[in-house]
TrEMBL record:
Superkingdom classification of source: Bacteria
Transmembrane parts of this sequence: 38-64, 76-94, 154-172, 184-202
Location of the VTT domain: 57-174
One Pfam family recorded for the sequence: VTT_dom
Transmembrane helix is among the record's keywords: yes
InterPro entries cross-referenced by the UniProt entry: DedA_domain (IPR051311), VTT_dom (IPR032816)
UniProt KW keywords: Cell membrane, Membrane, Transmembrane, Transmembrane helix
GO cellular component: plasma membrane
Name of this protein: VTT domain-containing protein
Record's subcellular location: Cell membrane
Membrane topology according to the record: Multi-pass membrane protein
Amino acid sequence: MLFLALCFASTFIILKSTGVVTVEKIEIWLDLAKSADPIYVALIVSLLLFADLLIAIPTLTVMLLSGYFLGPLNGAIASITGLLVAGICGYGISRRYGYVLVNFLIKDTEEREKAIAMFNNHGAVVILLSRATPILPEISACMAGMSKMPFNNFIVLWLISTVPYSLIASYAGSISSIDNPSPAIYTAIGLTGLFWAAWLLFRRRMKLERIRT
């Protein structure tokens, strides 16, 4: 998971240094699309969130802007669509080819089986809390595929993690404005803080389990 995190983080560093994708550019793209047709805004939102599988995109910012430009319902639908497709693709690709990466990262067969077993035991919680950090959702989708988690289990967990998050973010964006950005700001802080706190509690519980065993 650390190796995958470094791969995803490297894309953020590259994009940040080159200025190819920035929050300001995303807002300009959505604003230009809105002047043409709302369907283009929805398409850009979905594509950006899907691209998060390959490059580091500020997903929460995109979802807030989606609600601002499209409204709470349409913004949420566009966000959920992009994240759902990204999760399914990450899972599918990793399930098909992930064994190559797992064998490369973990040479020892016994250790490899332990790593997969650990994700099988705790992967559900990892997926549910994956919105705690920008990179963790993509990692959890890839790990679910590599560990051969049943697709039905994965998709249910992914939707539970994604749908409420998207609805809240889109609604906050829809009631925000340039003059009053407080709802979006407070929502961003609240969602991030909530998932971070839950993630820290989960990690503490994992440490206690390791100590007991």
